[in-house]
Amino acid sequence: MITVVGSYNVDIILKVNKLPEVGETVIAEETYTSHGGKGSNQAVSASRLGSNVRIIAAVGKDVYGYNAINFWKNEKIDVDYVKMKDISTGVAYILVDKKGRNVIAVNRGANYYLTEDDLDDGLRGDILLTQLEIKESVVKKALREFPGIKILNPAPAVLSDQEIIKLTDIITPNEIEFKEIVNTDDFEYGLEMLLKRVRKAVIVTLGERGALLATKDGKKVIIRAPKVNVVDETGAGDVFNAALAVYLEKNYDLESAVEYANKVAALSVTKIGALGPKLDEVNKFLEEISEEEKS
């Protein structure tokens, strides 16, 4: 079982020719709405890869909140610990350009009202996935009390309580988040500093270049990602984290889990949207990659 403690947002996505500069107005070529939020994205992506998934999250008592619960049920996710709050459901506004690059602004809404008490009895399973779109106190309790492997995706990288890192087994920042957490431009020094805090490993996601894995026992390796035609990078980090959790749950070693997570994330950016691919799509993609490597 993978337990996800995190956020749900309605994603309002605007396709633009170019991302606006400060003070600039650009015209959206296309606009659509979808399910999002880092917690939801990770839960759905993990479920689509075949894992049993529970989500602990908060949504509003509005149409978006009820839609979220129905959506999770359809995705075969345990919603017994989803809380409905007397406030609007969270919303994310996402601008995506022709190269697949994006900028995002989030109104947390009900996410901010998920409490420590809301976690009671739900913190069970093999793997915990959590992020920072909810209160730090809630994240800290989840990390402190969960019995299995604990993965923190530190996004957004606004972290005032450093004790949270010490409770984490594996931390998975992207390059920007990494710099914000360690507060230095010296990558090697920052990596050494972060490894001293975390329990097991640091994984820095590098986009199309793959991911850097560094462990407490001295391993440091860049694991490459397959080359693909990028359509939309939105949610790639969430898909990576979900796949990492799934393959760790399947008892893959950490390096192999990162390798497969890279591949699943690479497949995800070839399509519009923040949700990960389904298992049959992943298996087909893995077969294609294997054939290419043989030829």
Please describe what this structure looks like.
- The chain has helices at residues 38-48, 63-74, 136-145, 163-166, 175-182, 187-197, 236-249, 254-268, 279-294, and strands spanning 2-5, 9-16, 28-36, 53-56, 58-60, 77-78, 83-85, 90-96, 102-107, 127-130, 149-152, 170-171, 201-205, 211-215, 220-223.
- The strands form three sheets. Strands 6-4-1-10-11-12-13-14-15 form a nine-stranded mixed beta sheet, with helices on both faces. It has a four-stranded mixed beta sheet with strand order 3-2-8-9.
- It is of the alpha/beta class.
- The protein contains nine helices and 15 strands.
- Helices cover 34% and strands 24% of the residues.
- The protein has one domain (2-19, 30-289): Ribokinase (UDP-N-acetylmuramoyl-L-alanine:D-glutamate ligase, 3-Layer(aba) Sandwich), CATH 3.40.1190.20.
- A hairpin with a 5-residue loop joins strand 8 and strand 9.
- Helix 1 crosses helix 7, helix 5 (175-182) crosses helix 6 (187-197) and helix 7 runs antiparallel to helix 8 (254-268).
Question: What keywords describe this structure?
Answer:
nine-stranded mixed β-sheet, four-stranded mixed β-sheet, globular, 295 residues, alpha/beta
Strand order of the largest sheet: 6-4-1-10-11-12-13-14-15
Residue share in β-strands: 15-25%
Determine the number of helices (DSSP H or I, runs of at least 4 residues).
9
Number of strands: 15
Tell me, what's the shape?
globular
Structural class call reads alpha/beta
Sheet having the most strands: 9 strands, mixed
CATH H-level homologous superfamily name = Ribokinase
- Average pLDDT works out at 92
CA distance, first residue to last residue:
38 Å
What is the chain-wise order of helices and strands?
A: EEEHEEHEEEEEHEHEHHEEEHHH
Number of separate structural domains: 1
Round the Cα radius of gyration to an integer and report it.
18 Å
Fraction in helix: 25-40%
CATH class: Alpha Beta
